């Protein structure tokens, strides 16, 4: 695979940036300058760690369009009625207080020769090191009949916030005995257990509020993360409510019609009341515009998350192609700490520790019925490689499941404090 070292700019926005007489953000006033694009699990953590640990020796700018970041993690619990939307919203004031220069704008282009990032608002920011953590975008045409213009009729709710609230409103408005459909994504995608935790939380809501309603899942995969645990939980709590149609039964042969509100699975047309379409994913577009992806994901070096294309450009979290870690908030946060340590070392000569990573993905199946899967990882020349792992067992006691759920609550408080201060 080869990458061209040249200028990449989104054409339409590049034109507006030129017209708007771009303002140049002062880099670091003589200090090295790190620019972070994307203030989510990877980007917010990296920005905060570099700013906090460098004692003011490195200037850090974070570019993030939203003023409130809604975590995808625990957004399914909002659908299930276990959280309010405010519980999963976080502002950037803590990062600003840590010394990060927070710029609320979209990055729309990266010139890797000039080492600048252009902004939708017309400005330009120069960098010594650039960290991209823009999350995911959807692959065009991945689900026949669906594109972004259909996201109000058939929400994805795979970037949290207004989409999540919309899906919840549609769930609440379902007619008695109605049908909720989900089109599940192919691998690799953000949060492997996420769609199935969502099915559980939707089932929990419906069991309490609309018990004769049904859930259909069309899935292009033959198996999925924590499958045995979810299937056990669905049988225990939601018997007869969930129809999961895997690849073996035509679950991958699916199309939707958002105006007719129908889903066609392996030739069979079903009228649905709510349809949650989760299309195939790829790296956030700015990674592509920076020319550091292979068309889908950004290949990175495990030791520091620098891209294979450019040693001064790093990609974290969902957008990266790093090896064995799942695309999760925990993974992005863990990768961000390794990257922050390496970037600080490269810019100031501070000590760089060996790259170690960890991840746990918790899922809630029903009230106090939490399960988890996790692993530790290390950097090899080739990839981030799994060292050892663990997973909840089927048939665990209610006490163990409750303790697992409580552990996930503690993790949520911890990771959001780690990201936002
Ligand atoms: P994000 O956290 O999505 O951050 C990307 C940020 O970049 C966004 O704020 C976006 O606004 C910004 N951005 C994008 N493009 C630009 C641009 N051009 N310019 C400036 N900013 C830009 N993970 C877990 O660990 N545990 C869980 O329990 C869990 N549950 C989940 C449940 C669901 C339903 C979903 C959908 C995901 C879940 N995840 C979970 C996965 C987790 O949310 C993601 O893996 C994680 O957020 C990835 O971090 P990131 O930094 O790569 O991207």
Question: Explain this structure to me?
Answer:
- This protein has 421 residues and is of the alpha/beta class.
- The chain folds into two domains: 5-137 and 281-351, FAD/NAD(P)-binding domain, CATH 3.50.50; 148-277, FAD/NAD(P)-binding domain.
- The chain is 28% helix and 27% strand.
- The protein is built from ten helices and 26 strands.
- The chain has a five-stranded mixed beta sheet. It has a five-stranded parallel beta sheet with strand order 7-4-3-11-22, with helices on one face.
- β16 (254-257) and β17 (262-265) form a beta hairpin.
- α2 (41-53) runs parallel beside α9 and α2 (41-53) crosses α10 (398-420).
- It is globular.
- The two termini are 39 Å apart.
- Residues 1-24 have low confidence and may be disordered.
- The structure holds flavin-adenine dinucleotide (FAD).
- Flavin-adenine dinucleotide (FAD) binds next to α2, α3, α6, α9 and β24.
Which terms summarize this structure?
FAD/NAD(P)-binding domain; binds flavin-adenine dinucleotide; 2 domains; 5-stranded parallel beta sheet; 26 strands; alpha/beta
Give a quick rundown of the structure:
The chain has helices at residues 11-19, 41-53, 75-80, 93-97, 162-172, 194-209, 227-237, 285-289, 329-348, 398-420; strands at 7-9, 24-25, 33-37, 59-63, 68-70, 89-91, 101-103, 107-111, 116-119, 124-126, 129-132, 136-138, 179-183, 214-218, 242-245, 254-257, 262-265, 268-271, 274-277, 281-283, 298-299, 313-315, 320-321, 356-366, 369-379, 384-391. By secondary structure, the protein is α/β, with parallel strands linked by helices. α2 crosses α10.
């Amino acid at each position: 695979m080869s990458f061209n070292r040249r200028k990449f700019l989104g054409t339409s926005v590049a034109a507006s940036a030129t017209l708007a007489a771009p303002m140049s953000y002062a880099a670091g006033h003589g200090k090295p300058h790190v620019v972070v694009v994307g203030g989510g699990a990877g980007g917010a953590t990296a920005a905060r760690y570099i700013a906090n640990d460098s004692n003011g020796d490195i200037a850090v700018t974070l570019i993030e369009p939203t003023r409130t970041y809604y975590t995808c993690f625990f957004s399914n619990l909002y659908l299930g009625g276990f959280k309010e939307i405010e519980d999963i919203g976080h502002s950037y004031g803590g990062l600003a207080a840590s010394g990060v220069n927070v710029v609320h704008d979209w990055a729309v282009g990266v010139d890797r020769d000039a080492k600048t990032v252009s902004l939708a608002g017309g400005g330009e920011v120069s960098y010594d090191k650039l960290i991209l953590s823009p999350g995911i975008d959807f692959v065009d045409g991945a689900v026949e009949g669906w594109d972004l213009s259909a996201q109000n009729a058939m929400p994805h709710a795979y970037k949290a916030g207004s989409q999540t609230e919309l899906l919840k409103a549609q769930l609440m408005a379902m007619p008695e005995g109605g049908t909720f459909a989900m089109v599940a994504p192919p691998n690799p995608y953000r949060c492997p257990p996420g769609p199935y935790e969502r099915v559980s939380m939707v089932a929990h809501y419906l069991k309490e509020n609309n018990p004769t309603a049904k859930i259909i899942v069309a899935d292009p995969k033959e198996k999925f993360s924590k499958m045995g645990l979810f299937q056990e939980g669905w049988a225990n709590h939601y018997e007869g409510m969930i129809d999961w149609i895997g690849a073996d039964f035509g679950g991958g042969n699916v199309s939707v019609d958002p105006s007719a509100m129908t889903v066609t699975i392996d030739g069979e047309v079903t009228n649905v009341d709510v349809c949650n379409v989760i299309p195939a994913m790829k790296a956030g577009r700015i990674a592509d515009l920076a020319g550091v992806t292979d068309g889908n994901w950004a290949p990175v070096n495990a030791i520091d998350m620098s891209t294979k294309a450019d040693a001064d450009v790093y990609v974290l979290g969902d957008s990266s192609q790093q090896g064995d870690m799942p695309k999760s908030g925990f993974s992005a946060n863990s990768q961000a700490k390794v990257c922050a340590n390496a970037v600080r070392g490269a810019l100031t000569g501070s000590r760089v520790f060996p790259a170690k990573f960890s991840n746990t993905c918790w899922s809630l199946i029903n009230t106090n019925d939490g399960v988890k899967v996790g692993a530790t990882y290390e950097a090899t020349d080739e990839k981030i490689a799994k060292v050892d792992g663990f997973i909840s067992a089927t048939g665990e006691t209610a006490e163990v499941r409750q303790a697992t759920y409580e552990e996930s609550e503690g993790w949520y408080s911890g990771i959001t404090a780690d990201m936002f201060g």
